[in-house]
Structures are given as structure tokens and as C-alpha cells.
Write a structure and sequence with these properties.
Distance between the termini: 44 Å
Strand order of the largest sheet: 2-3-5-6
Number of strands: 6
Order of helices and strands: HEEEEHHEE
Strand content: 25-35%
Helix content: 10-25%
Radius of gyration: 15 Å
Structural class: alpha+beta
Amino acid sequence: MKTKLGYTDSHAKAGINVPLPGIECWPNQYPDYEITIAIPEYTSICPKTKLPDFGTITIHYIPNKRCVELKSLKMYLLAYRNLGIFYENAVNRILKDIVKACQPKWVVVRGDFSSRGGLNSSIEATFGRKPR
């Protein structure tokens, strides 16, 4: 399918299944605490226009048995730099890959993307329910 602006299904699916470096984890030692990781230098490429996208990715989670290892997360996120992927897909893919890697009790991934053409976007994807 092609829209009036020329967006296709291949644009919409771009980057969703591209192999990326793995996210490693280490054994968690404590129950019931929260971790927030902010990545203020996220970059990727628009799959249609090929223009760069910039933003901050924030990962907020409650670990279960494993915690995300930060160097591997950094290498994983750096792989997005030349990847054609829409904001929405990037945030949801990051969520899926975090859940697969460390199986947290709860996690939210938020992308706050820089303004383009006078508009800026925030996308948020959540797994699980935050315990009260």
C-alpha cells in the first residue's frame, strides 16, 4: 500500500527485524527497586527521507532476576545510528529487546525526539504493570 505522500509498507516495517547487537544482563541482587537509564544522544535515520533523527531514549524499569548491562546497551543503541526506522517502531523495538534480554517486572521506554518542522514527538511503550 502507498499513501498520497509516498509512504509504503516497506517504510513502515523498516528496521523492525534488522539484526542488532545483543543486550547483555547481569544477575540482580536486590528486590523491588527502580532503574532509570537516559540516553540523550539517540540517533537513527528516517526510512523515507533518509534524514537523521535525534532524541533522548529513557528506559525506566524494575528488574526481576537480571539487570541490563550498560556497555552492551550502549552498543545496541549505537547500532540505530545508521538504521532506517520510524520513531514509533524504534521505541517499541527497544522495549521488545529489553524485555527479551532481562525479563523485567515492569519497564517503560520513552523516546523524546527533537523538533523537526516545528513538531516534536514523544513515544512511550510499556511492558507489564508497575507494582504499587
